[in-house]
Amino acid sequence: MRPSGRELSDLRPISIETGVTKHAEGSCLIKMGDTHVLCTATIEDRAPSFLKGSGLGWVTAEYGMLPRATNTRNRREAAAGKQGGRTVEIQRLIGRALRAGVDRSALGERQIVVDCDVIQADGGTRCASITGGWVALRLAVNKLLKTGACTSDPLMDHVAAISCGIYAGQPVADLDYAEDSEAGTDGNFIMTGAGKLIEVQMSAEGATFSRDQMNKLLDLAEAGVAQLVAAQKAATA
């Protein structure tokens, strides 16, 4: 039995509310159970200097966690004077994931920055950030298309992510913190709406896993991402 009482393949309740901030070109509040992430997308009229004259655009991301997003208060990284290694790793992951679904030629020489701020954490914050980040990106790109700044849609497909792992010897989908902290194997699966893999992060957290178990986790991830993409479509319809 999972701590939440969910079946092995059950995701936590999904909620995506759009247009939650006044100024950002695209924004949403995504809730995956008790993990809540505010995602905003900002359009900048020029691309990074390393792309000058290339005709290509860029999508990047920043990630942060509010001090009381967890059970105990974490010091703000700004107060420490630098970002932690985990933060840097996650925001690079979010950027890579979102760029995989973008036609950078169609985007043109501009940059879209996706900010993901964790308001409340209960496991799977990077996956919720990617899934919600895509929604914010979609909304921002819609504005570029509406104004004619982009003549063709730069977004080639949906991008969503889910965590799956081996908990109490069983493969389970969408781990919450109670499961994540005890999982023998933990994995993050990032996929397109068409079911193509973008990135897989998988590691044994105290017990090795078999090829058969890995395949079962991939099956769970594929089904879970399909549900997340359906939620993205409903939010951006």
Fold and architecture overview:
With 237 residues, the protein is α+β, with helices and mostly antiparallel strands. The chain has a single domain, classed as GHMP Kinase, N-terminal domain (Ribosomal Protein S5, domain 2), CATH 3.30.230. 32% of the residues lie in helices and 29% in strands. The protein has 6 helices and 9 strands; from the N terminus they run E-E-E-E-H-H-H-E-H-E-E-H-E-E-H. The strands form 2 sheets. The protein has a 5-stranded mixed β-sheet. The protein has a 4-stranded antiparallel β-sheet with strand order 7-6-8-9, with helices on both faces. Helix 2 crosses helix 4 and helix 4 runs parallel beside helix 6. The mean pLDDT is 96.
Short description:
This protein is α+β, with helices and mostly antiparallel strands and 237 residues long.
For the structure shown, list the relevant keywords:
Ribosomal Protein S5, domain 2; alpha+beta; Ribonuclease PH; ExoRNase_PH_dom2; 237 residues
Task: Compile the SSE list and pairings.
Elements: E1 14-18, E2 26-32, E3 35-44, E4 58-65, H1 77-80, H2 85-99, H3 104-107, E5 111-120, H4 125-147, E6 159-167, E7 170-173, H5 177-180, E8 185-192, E9 197-204, H6 211-236
Parallel strand pairs: 4-5
Antiparallel strand pairs: 1-2, 2-3, 3-5, 6-7, 6-8, 8-9
Number of domains: 1
First-to-last CA distance: 36 Å
- Radius of gyration equals 18 Å
Give a count of the beta strands, DSSP E runs of length 2 or more. Answer: 9
Shape: globular
Organism: Thioclava pacifica DSM 10166
Family: Belongs to the RNase PH family.
Binding site for phosphate: 86, 124-126
Pfam families: RNase_PH, RNase_PH_C
